TrEMBL record:
It catalyses: 4-aminobutanoate + 2-oxoglutarate = succinate semialdehyde + L-glutamate; (S)-3-amino-2-methylpropanoate + 2-oxoglutarate = 2-methyl-3-oxopropanoate + L-glutamate. The gene is gabT. Its EC number is 2.6.1.19, 2.6.1.22. CDD domains: OAT_like. This is (S)-3-amino-2-methylpropionate transaminase. Belongs to the class-III pyridoxal-phosphate-dependent aminotransferase family. GO terms for biological process: gamma-aminobutyric acid metabolic process. It comes from the Bacteria. Its cofactor is pyridoxal 5'-phosphate. Pathway: Amino-acid degradation; 4-aminobutanoate degradation. Pfam families: Aminotran_3 (PF00202). It is an enzyme of class 2 (transferase).
Length: 435
C-alpha cells in the first residue's frame, strides 16, 4: 500500500468512528476493495479468505459472474417501480420458484420482503391473521432478528436485547435440546424423551396451545451456536402443532439454499413446515427475504395488509433467480456436504492437539466448534474463542463466533470456495488454534 492509499484508509477509519455509531460492530478494520469467490481483497491488495460469508449470505460466493450480469441487466431496465404499484416479472417468477422448491406438495404462495427480521415478523402476522390467535412460541437460544418483535423472539440478551425493551407481548420461549450438554448420567434417548416431555409441559405451565398462533423454529440454531436438534424432537414439535392447529414456521434464513447439504434444512428431519422464512443467501448479498408456504394461510390477509415500499426489489429478484440456477448447475447441495466434511476433519485433527476443543458439530457445511476450559466440565471458554477469532481476523481469515455464551466458532464459507482458498483458510485457522 502506498503512503497515499494508507492515508486514505486512515481517513476512512476516522470517518467511520466519527459518523457511524459504535453499536455497529466490526470484526476487523480492513476496508474492502473487491471480492471474488471466497476471497476479499482490501485496499492494500491483501487477500482475506472469507469463512464468514457476510454471516451466511454468500453461499454462491462474492461477485459470481452470473449474478453480476443479471443485476446489471436489470439495472438497465428499471430499479424499482414498487410491486404494489406496478407488477414486474422477476417478483412473480421468484415467487413461483420458491413455491416449487420449498418442502411440501400442497398449493403454496410466496411474498417477498427485504430482511430476515421482516420475513419473520410477517410470518407471525400471517399466522395470527389465519388462526385469529395471539401467542408466539420460539425456543431457548433462538435468534430471529433485531426489530422489536423479533428481539422478543430472540433468546440472547446481550448484545441483542439489553436496554431495548419493552418488547412485544405474548412471546414465549420453549426448551430446545442441546445434546452436548445433556447430563452425563442420562442416555441420549432418555434426554430426548425428557426434552419432549418438557416441551409438552411448557404448554401446560406457560401458555395454552389453543392461544398460540405459531411456533417458529430454526432447524439448526444459528446465532445460538449451530445447535442441531434431534430428529425425533423436531418431528414431535411438528406433530404437536398439527394436533393443536398451530402454524409451524421453519426459520430457514441462515440454513436455507444448500447450506446444510439439502436445499432446506427441514428436509433432514423429514418435516414439512406450514410456512418457511427465507433470506440471507437468497439473493447473494442483496437485501431480499420472503415467506413461503400454504396458500390458505398466506391468503388469509386482505389486500394492503402485507407488503412494504421496497419489498421484493426487482434487482434483488434478478440476483435471486440466478442464485437458484447456480445452486442447481454447480451442484452446491453436494458441495456443501464435501466442504463440511473437510472442515470437520480439520477440526477433529485439531481436537487431538487442543484440550479446549469440546464439541464439533455440523449439518452439511454448517459447521461449528465449541470451546471449553476442559472436556470434562464443558465450561464455556469464551476467552479462547475470542483469541482465535481475533487472530484469524488479523491474519487473513474472516471468522465468526456464536453461541449464547460466545464460546462457539462457526463456519459459513461460500459453498463455491476453491480448494486453494480452503487450504489457505485452514492453514490460518490452524495457526490461530496454535497461537
Amino acid at each position: 500500500m502506498t503512503t497515499v492509499e494508507q492515508a486514505r484508509d486512515d481517513i476512512l477509519r476516522t470517518k467511520r468512528n466519527k459518523y457511524i455509531p459504535r453499536g455497529v460492530s466490526n470484526g476487523n478494520v480492513l476496508i474492502a476493495d473487491h471480492a471474488k469467490g471466497a476471497t476479499i481483497t482490501d485496499h492494500a491488495q491483501n487477500e482475506w479468505i472469507d469463512f464468514a460469508g457476510a454471516i451466511g449470505t454468500l453461499n454462491v460466493g462474492h461477485s459470481h459472474p452470473k449474478i453480476t450480469e443479471a443485476v446489471k441487466a436489470q439495472v438497465d431496465k428499471f430499479l424499482h417501480p414498487g410491486f404494489n404499484v406496478v407488477m414486474y416479472e422477476g417478483y412473480i417468477q421468484l415467487a413461483e420458484r420458491l413455491c416449487q422448491l420449498t418442502p411440501g406438495s400442497f398449493d403454496k404462495q410466496a411474498i417477498l420482503f427485504n430482511s430476515g427480521a421482516e420475513a419473520v415478523e410477517n410470518a407471525v402476522k400471517i399466522a395470527r391473521k389465519y388462526t385469529n390467535r395471539q401467542a408466539v412460541v420460539t425456543f431457548t437460544r433462538g435468534f430471529h432478528g433485531r426489530t422489536n418483535l423479533t428481539m422478543g423472539m430472540t433468546s440472547k440478551v446481550k448484545p441483542y436485547k439489553f436496554g431495548f425493551g419493552p418488547f412485544a407481548p405474548e412471546i414465549y420461549q420453549a426448551p430446545y435440546p442441546y445434546l452436548y450438554h445433556k447430563p452425563d448420567t442420562m442416555s441420549e434417548s432418555d434426554y430426548i424423551d425428557q426434552q419432549i416431555e418438557e416441551f409438552e409441559e411448557f404448554f401446560i405451565s406457560t401458555v395454552a396451545p389453543e392461544t398460540v398462533a405459531c411456533v417458529v423454529m430454526e432447524p439448526v440454531q444459528g446465532e445460538g451456536g449451530f445447535i442441531i436438534p434431534p430428529k425425533k424432537f423436531v418431528q414431535f414439535v411438528r406433530a404437536f402443532c398439527e394436533k393443536h392447529g398451530i402454524v409451524f414456521v421453519a426459520d430457514e434464513i441462515q440454513t436455507g439454499f444448500a447450506r446444510t447439504g439439502k436445499l432446506f434444512a427441514m428436509e433432514h428431519f423429514d418435516v414439512i413446515p406450514d410456512l418457511v422464512t427465507v433470506s440471507k443467501s437468497l439473493a447473494a448479498g442483496l437485501p431480499l427475504s420472503g415467506v413461503v408456504g400454504r396458500k390458505e394461510i398466506l391468503h388469509a390477509a386482505e389486500p394492503g395488509e402485507l407488503g412494504g415500499t421496497f419489498a421484493g426489489n426487482p434487482v434483488a429478484c434478478a440476483a435471486a433467480l440466478q442464485v437458484l440456477d447456480i445452486i442447481e448447475e454447480e451442484k452446491l447441495v453436494e458441495k456443501a456436504e464435501l466442504l463440511g466434511k473437510k472442515l470437520e476433519d480439520k477440526l477433529i485433527t485439531l481436537s487431538k492437539e487442543h484440550a479446549f476443543i469440546g464439541d464439533i458439530r455440523r449439518l452439511g457445511a454448517m459447521v461449528a466448534v465449541e470451546l471449553v476450559t476442559d472436556q470434562n466440565s464443558k465450561f464455556p471458554n469464551k476467552t479462547k474463542a475470542s483469541e482465535i477469532v481475533n487472530y484469524a481476523n488479523g491474519h487473513g481469515l474472516l471468522l465468526l463466533s456464536a453461541g449464547l455464551k460466545g464460546n462457539v466458532i462457526r463456519f459459513l464459507a461460500p459453498l463455491v470456495i476453491s480448494d486453494e482458498e480452503l487450504a489457505k483458510g485452514l492453514t490460518i485457522l490452524e495457526q490461530a488454534f496454535n497461537q
